[in-house]
Design a protein that fits this description.
Blueprint (H helix, E strand, L loop, with lengths): L5 E2 L2 E2 L4 E4 L3 E5 L9 E5 L12 H22 L3 E6 L14 E6 L8 H6 L6 H6 L17 H21 L9
Antiparallel strand pairs: 1-2, 3-4, 4-5, 5-7, 6-7
C-alpha cells in the first residue's frame, strides 16, 4: 500500500492519477474547465516554487510538461493555461505549491476571464492569513466541489488513459525520467 498523499493538509490519495518520486498529478476539486488538473510536489512544506531543490524542480517541470501534453490529448483541448499562483497575494488558495493545467476549447473560450476565475482572491485574503493557510470557499457558484467518488472515478480513468498515452506516444517517455 502506498503512503497517503497530501495537498497541504488535505488527503488527496484517491484524486491522484500520476506520481513520481517528488511530485504528483491529481484531479481538481473545483475544475474551471473539463480536464483541469494540478501538479503538486509530494513535499508538503514546499509552499513556493523557490523552495524546490534543483532536482525536485527538474522532475516537477518534466511532470508539468508530460501532464500538459497528456491532458491536451485525452480531453481534445486546443490550448492550455498553465498557472502557478505563488503566494497568497498572487491568489494561491492552498499553502502548497501547485501548478494548474487548464484545458482551453474554442467552443467555450472565456478568454482572459480565466484569470478572474483563478484570481477571485481579494475577499479571501484575510481568511487565508488567519485560518492556518486555508482559503474561504470561492464565491463562484458555477464551481461547486465534486464528490470524492466522482474525483476517484476521474483519477482512475486518467491513470488508465495515461498508461495508454505513454504506450502510444514514445516521445512522451522523456518526461517520465
Amino acid at each position: 500500500m502506498s503512503a497517503p498523499i497530501y495537498f497541504s493538509k488535505f488527503l488527496v490519495s484517491d484524486q491522484v492519477f500520476y506520481r513520481t518520486k517528488y511530485c504528483y498529478a491529481l484531479v481538481n476539486l473545483k475544475p474551471i474547465t473539463k480536464g483541469h488538473v494540478l501538479v503538486v510536489p509530494l513535499r508538503t512544506s514546499a509552499v513556493n516554487l523557490s523552495e524546490l531543490t534543483p532536482h525536485e524542480n527538474a522532475v516537477y517541470f518534466r511532470t508539468v510538461q508530460l501532464i500538459h501534453k497528456f491532458i491536451m490529448w485525452v480531453y481534445g483541448a486546443q490550448s492550455v493555461n498553465i498557472a502557478i499562483q505563488d503566494g497568497p497575494e498572487a491568489g494561491q488558495s492552498v499553502p502548497h505549491l501547485h501548478t494548474h493545467i487548464i484545458p482551453r476549447y474554442r467552443e467555450n473560450n472565456i478568454g482572459d476571464a480565466m484569470y478572474e476565475r483563478l484570481d477571485d482572491f481579494d475577499v479571501r485574503r484575510d481568511y487565508y492569513t488567519h485560518h492556518q493557510g486555508t482559503m474561504k470557499p470561492d464565491a463562484d457558484d458555477d464551481r461547486k466541489p465534486r464528490t470524492m467518488s466522482d474525483m476517484k472515478q476521474e483519477a482512475l480513468m486518467l491513470q488508465s488513459k495515461l498508461a495508454e498515452y505513454l504506450q502510444t506516444h514514445e516521445d512522451a517517455l522523456q518526461w517520465t525520467k
